[in-house]
């Protein structure tokens, strides 16, 4: 096979990586399950989820496995997926890791905005051998989370500010509707008006809790997307109404 033919084949079947994720948007998507095939349009792809608009959305049920063939400007891509949400006229399906690797995104993992509590039970800094263990754990508020880290705030507290630094190791428990004990490492710190904001990476998450964390992030990503979509539709409707009645 010539080099030109090989490059064409790689592009056609999506074996190369580094495509811009935008090439999928508005592409034709063919879904198939069992003996049923339907055609729609891919309208959203970010992080772990994709939205496909199609007339026969009601044929698919939550949890259905399906094969998706995408006809994009950069070639043809085939992937196996699962239906995780639906609404009239569209399905939300999983964007599997092997497909995400083909397309460039700003973040390796999707980050979702949340408002959940957490507790710090101990802090250890790199220059200290002894851990600061708290008889009364310190409250914090989780503001965003992904599979590789989170952002949280602590109300203005001089004692806490004095002992949490970049590279500090924290033993915490996250309340995500289930308790998730884990270890964090602080990677950045920012003073806000009445609190401190910390960015942290996960140093350890119990293996048995990893799937629960992924499920929590996925649910929030879907909910956030639907809320944003409805807000956008409402704004467009209001703009249309205003234009019709100047």
UniProtKB/TrEMBL annotation:
An example of a Pfam family matching this protein is PilZ
Q: Which InterPro entries match?
A: PilZ_domain
Record-level Gene Ontology MF annotations: cyclic-di-GMP binding
Entry-linked Gene3D superfamilies: predicted glycosyltransferase like domains
In this chain the PilZ domain maps to: 105-218
- Classification via SUPFAM superfamilies: PilZ domain-like
Name of this chain's protein: PilZ domain-containing protein
Q: Give the organism, scientific name.
A: Paenibacillus roseopurpureus
Q: What is the lineage of its organism?
A: Bacteria, Bacillati, Bacillota, Bacilli, Bacillales
């Amino acid at each position: 096979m010539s080099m030109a033919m090989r490059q064409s084949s790689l592009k056609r079947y999506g074996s190369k990586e580094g495509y811009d994720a935008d090439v999928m948007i508005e592409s034709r998507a063919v879904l198939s399950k069992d003996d049923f095939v339907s055609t729609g349009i891919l309208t959203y792809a970010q992080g772990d989820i994709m939205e496909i608009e199609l007339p026969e959305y009601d044929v698919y049920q939550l949890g259905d496995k399906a094969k998706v063939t995408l006809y994009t400007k950069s070639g043809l891509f085939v992937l196996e997926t699962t239906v995780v949400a639906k609404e009239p006229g569209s399905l939300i399906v999983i964007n599997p890791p092997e497909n995400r690797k083909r397309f460039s995104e700003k973040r390796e993992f999707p980050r979702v905005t949340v408002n959940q509590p957490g507790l710090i039970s101990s802090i250890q800094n790199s220059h200290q051998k002894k851990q600061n263990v708290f008889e009364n754990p310190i409250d914090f508020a989780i503001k965003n989370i992904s599979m590789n880290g989170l952002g949280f705030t602590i109300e203005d507290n001089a004692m806490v500010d004095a002992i949490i630094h970049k590279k500090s190791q924290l033993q915490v428990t996250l309340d995500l509707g289930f308790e998730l004990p884990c270890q964090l490492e602080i990677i950045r710190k920012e003073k806000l008006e009445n609190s401190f904001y910390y960015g942290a990476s996960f140093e350890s998450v119990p293996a048995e809790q990893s799937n629960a964390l992924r499920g929590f992030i996925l649910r929030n990503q879907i909910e956030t997307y639907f809320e944003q979509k409805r807000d956008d539709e409402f704004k467009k409707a209001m703009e249309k109404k205003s234009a019709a009645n100047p």
